[in-house]
Amino acid sequence: MTRQERRKRLAELSFSQKVKILEKLRRRSLAIAASGLRRRSASGVRNADEDSRPA
Amino acid sequence: MKTTLEMINRMQGDGVIGKYAIGGAVGATFYLEPSATVDVDIFAVLPKAGSSSLLSLVPIYEYLKAHGCDADGEHVVIGEWPVQFLPPSDALEREALAEATETEIEGVKTWVMTAEHLVAIAIRTGRPKDHARILQFLEQDAVDTERLNRVLAGHGLIAKWQQFKKKYGADTND
Questions:
Q1: In the predicted model, what is the mean pLDDT of residues A17-24?
Q2: How many CB atoms lie within 10 A of CB B37?
């Protein structure tokens, strides 16, 4: 299934089904924010960039 | 969301708010694929307090506090969702409320702004995230172009719409 087809299929779900997905997305972002994963991952990228710089 | 809407309907039944409609990202989800959002925008007619012509959100906050909800900045948390109550600020938002579509979420009756009003409000607001949402509406053929043009013309938004189409090369068959 192409990305376009997947989006169309999601848009065709009932409002109740789409709201369930919104709730899952929201819980997931809150969990990521609470675990600090986002911050760690961003600083990990920065550290990796620094490590890869020539001395 | 079910609990959130049940409480908002109860507020309406108790006369704390008048007619309401879901707008913003949750409103757009009625027409499009779901995309992440942190809050719910509820546009609601507020009854005027006594002889004053000023509108106040205080009765909403007091009512919800008495029903165990907590305020969080400009939101009130109802059930799981932070909700922002927005009294209609101009003729476009008043029309959006008046013409909102009745629907149901998990068996709870509610109202959602029409796709054309959501797009017109997004054109007027004009932030990058609003433009991204308009493009989604157009890509998914989720707006009635004739009706959209009528709404845009009625609220002096044609010039902004032309600018948007020029910027994004949007094809709207108008």
A1: 94
A2: 17
